[in-house]
Amino acid sequence: MDKAALVERIKLWGKALGFQQVGITSPDLSRFEAGFVRWLDAGMHGEMDYMARHGLKRLRPAELQSGTRSVISVRMDYMPDALADAPRVMQDGRLGYVSRYALGRDYHKLMRARLQQLAERIEAEIGAFGHRVFVDSAPVYETGLAENAGLGWKGKHSLILNRGAGSWFFLGELFVDLDLPLDTPSEQGHCGRCTACMDVCPTKAIVAEGVVDARLCISYLTIEHAGAIPVELRPLLGNRIYGCDDCQLICPWNRFAQPTDEADFKPRHGLQSADLLDLWAWTEEEFLRRTEGSAIRRIGYERWRRNLAVALGNAPGDGGIVEVLQRDLPQASPLVAEHMLWALERQLMNVRR
CB neighbours (10 Å) of residue 217? Predict the structure, then answer.
């Protein structure tokens, strides 16, 4: 089989495995290096020390996986039916808003398994070859690879946008030691003059076109950040307890996005519109049970409570919230207690009005 025919088969096999698009690119990401270094030097990676620790290795696939000659880049849609209800949930301060990508099972395992199946299918066709699967699990500059592979362009919110699918999709890669025909990189500039994502960001974390300061990003603050959430940013989090979708919800290109057919991405445990006090009532054991197989579990129970405390502080004045916070304060860890005290102060002010 010639290489062009092999690539066509790889794309067919990939789609049969549930990937909506498969592209091929080289491991050359040199055009992104200067921008990445500027972002690091500005400290916009926050406490994500691994970003600086790996440095330019993130943009040099052959250093991460020796012998890499081509990269198979894939995308998998995850938009749930619950997306239509997202604005209502976000506007109801009594509910907790969970980023739509985290409502179902953790995508990392599913996509890794599918990419491994793709590798095995290729091996059955051509024999043993060098390869390695990645799904947001190592220093890989996924958006650059996806852009170079023709999957879409980098939007002003820094996510990859696709003309026919918007941005509600996950990315994954298969590094291979095969010389494969390459796809044409995506054209740039399809956002035009639109700045909707930059304008809607609650914390103004999108500091320039395609540049996000993680230290201001709600997804970073509620997921990656381990310490206290800066006091000045807490009111801006609203009821967002795990991640944030504002920049995607407002994006005009997402009118073309399609709901996922993947059963594992369907919402579980009612997290698409859960009551904050119901979530607060979870014990650590219940948190671990209800988040089993979910991306949410990795933040741990303490950060989960920290995030909920902020949301409770931003909720409409409610004597029931005050009672629960006062009751649970003595048992709280220092980190959670700090946020509970902040929430109590805000709640007491609102209740007295």
Answer: 25
Residue 152 has pLDDT above 70, yes or no: yes
Q: Are residues 13 and 72 in the same domain?
A: yes
Task: Say if residue 141 is in the same domain as residue 214.
Answer: no
For residue 184, the 8-state DSSP code is: P
Q: Which two tokens stand for residue 111?
A: 């996509």
- Total tally of structural domains belonging to the chain: 2
**Do 226 and 169 share a domain, yes or no?**
no
User: Which domain covers residue 40, as residue numbers?
Assistant: 3-81+103-176
pLDDT digits (tens, 9 = 90+) for 177-226: 999 999 999 987 799 999 999 999 999 999 999 999 999 999 999 999 99
**Cα(300)–Cα(6) distance, rounded to whole angstroms?**
44
CB 237 within 8 A of CB 229: yes
Using 50, 70 and 90 to split pLDDT, how confident is the model at 329? very high
Question: Both 214 and 166 in a single domain?
Answer: no
The residue count for the chain:
353
* 97, 275 contact by CB (below 8 A): no
Q: Is residue 38 part of a domain?
A: yes
Is 33 in the same domain as 77?
A: yes
CATH number at residue 45: 3.40.109
Q: Which of 176, 205, 225 is the last residue of a domain?
A: 176
Tokens of 149: 């592979």
What is the number of alpha carbons within 13 Å of residue 226 lying toward its C-beta?
A: 5
Q: How many CA atoms lie within 13 A of 6 on its CB side?
A: 19
What is d(CA 309, CA 116) in angstroms, rounded to the nearest whole number? 40
Active site residue 177: no
**Residue 353 — pLDDT band, cuts 50, 70, 90?**
low
Last residue of a domain, one of 143, 176, 209: 176
Task: Give the relative orientation of helices 319-328 and 300-314 as an angle to the nearest 10 degrees.
Answer: 150
Per residue in 70-105, pLDDT tens?
999 999 999 987 688 999 999 999 999 999 999 999
Residue 217 belongs to a domain: yes
**Contact assessment for residue 61 and residue 68, using Cβ atoms and an 8 Å cutoff:** yes
The catalytic residue among 85, 136, 264, 328 is: 136
Q: Which residue has the tokens 């699990």?
A: 137
